[in-house]
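so i finally got all the pieces together for this one. its two components total, 729 residues if u count the protein bits. some of the lines might not be protein, just check the labels. i wanna see the whole assembly predicted at once instead of chain by chain like last time, that was a mess tbh
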Amino acid sequence: MIQRMSKIQIVGSRRIMEEVIELLHSLSILHIESVPEDIKEDLASRVVPLQREELALKERTEKMLQKVSDLILLLYPVREKAPDWLSNGVYRPPVSIYPLPEWKIEKFSVTDIVSEKFLSDFDALEDRLRGLHKKRSEIAEGLSLIARYERILKGLAPLISKLSDLKAIEFTGVIVDKDKAGVIPLLESEIKRITDGMYQIFRKELEGESIGVIIAYQRDYDLKVRSLLSEEGISEIKLPAEYSGLPLFEALKIMIRKKGEMTLEIKEIEKELDKISEEWYWKIEGFMGVLKDLVDEFRTLGYCKVTKYTFFITGWAPQRDLPLLRDSIKDKFGERVLLRELEIRKEELERIPVSIRNPGIVKPFEIFMSILPPPRYDSIDPTPFLAIFFPVFFGLILGDSAHGLILLVFTLILRRRFAENDVIKDLTKVFFLCAVYSIIFGFLFGEFFGRFGERFGMHPILLDRGRTIKGFLIISIAIGVGHIMLGFILSLLNSIKWKRKKEAVGKLSSILMLFAILLAIASVAGYLPRGFLFFGIILSIAVIPVILIFEGLIGIIEVIKSLSNIVSYTRIMALGTAAVMMSLVANRVGKMSGNIIIGIIIAGIIHALNIVIGVFSPTIQALRLHYVEFFSKFYKEGNRRYIPFRKTRGEVRLWRRV
Amino acid sequence: MEKGLIALSAAIAIAVSGLATAWAQSKIGSAGAGAIAEKPEVSGTIIILMAIPETMVILGFVIAVMIILGT
């Protein structure tokens, strides 16, 4: 539901402006409005200029925030969960220069930000971390180079140890693809010719699709052998640049030794990084929060209008939070600060920040609304309707008690396993409802793994989706009619609520025209007596001019588009039928195997596939029916979300006066 | 003969609409993959965009059903 908002103006003595900003920051209620350009130019009031010291502080804070933001990228959370002192306890900044801790409130002395110790401590930490990261990436690069030779090394290791003691003998390594193994005898005969038989050739199958070949020959023939290989386009095993001057075996031996050393070295570096991250990550994360809060407060100063003795802050607050805001200001500042509720002008409606608050059962469905822009303040929040219809559409499409039960168990397991992940928690709540509806519709359609339930006396109550396709088609279209009509009615009620008379008449006419067309179609199809056809045509003709006057040509197009929107709901039937057919195929293929165990395995695999498709497809299609068909009837996009002036670190008090 | 023609008509209804959907989805899919690579936060929108051309094959399926049922 879209919350009612109030336009607020806070007026007070300029001397206490910073304290008021501090209070507003802690309350996290007010969405502060930036000063419009025309008012900025107004001579009577001016945007508060920052004092020289404040300007220096602001720049320093921004610089430090940038520094710690860069620094935190070099660290990682060793423990995923933030420690208690950061989430709800007292925060101790990394440098202990704050002597005024109170219960639950940490005073962060803003002026201490200029202390050189702050930056020099972080500089030292950054240098240390960058050094470790650089060293690690250099070693990792060396390791990946060696890894490329590992396959060859593993395969040729026995040969290396056997041959490496021979003196005055040269070795050349060649890798040949297995499917080109025929070239090895040809190569051997050529080597034999060149070396006058003074050679030895060793081959070994390597992992993968290649063969390692080592050619050993007297050093005198080295030049001839190498030119033969290069003429024939046979590539030798190329060593990395740092080993290029070494003989093949020597290089390979060094590589094996180095690999072990490098792995150990990397482990050491990672251990040290772990240690530093454990000590610093959450401290820096917390400190970043403090700096962000401080930057926010400086920015807010720029939103205040100031005269010689007073300041004005304008913004928006949800009506339900207004008493808290009013009382808090009165308690702290008494008559020195005044809170006024301003009248909202009609032309401001589009610019009002939108705050959405839904009851617990609807809230998880907000996740599906996050991909759309927020609704306009004078529009309707579609989330409650999504929460009602999405699980029903899902259940109608999946419509199998067994599949629903499996989905139910799966969501419960996921919920337990990812209890701390809010997104997964919301999704499991949504799919829990979807699973319940699938079980209910499965029972009504008599489906338990397709028609497997018939063996236990389960029979269709509402309809048999596999046999009564026409009935299912009519039900789908009827759902479409109801859903689209509801969309139009919501739009009509909203127009009445906001007293937009012209729009309301246009919407009412559209509803009447759509109703008339549907009556005529139902009459032609034989579901209603013939008389309704004429009634429908006359009513349509009668409302067309009204729509043209109040909504324009677009109104007529909208009604015609609504007909195609209604037909689009046949996807419920199409996907539902596909799901039941897939289950029937699974059971039939399983039965055809002739063996009960193999049959269960085959049917199980096809059912598993069906469940995966059966969860993904109804989700997409049910969402699409809402986004494209239903929402287009009443949903108007807004462009402003309600973002209150909120503190990241509520428990830290930014202390400006030491 | 008549039965065969009915089956063929139903098959054409679904095959042509299936091809049309596939063509549209191939275009949206490749553009969508590019968009997701640049901005992963648009994944949800792309999935919905991918589902939009499915209306064609679903309508094809409905027509095929109507041909078979003789309505």
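Chain B has a mean pLDDT of 87.
Residues 2-66 of chain B form a domain with the F1FO ATP Synthase fold (CATH 1.20.20.10).
anyway lmk what u think
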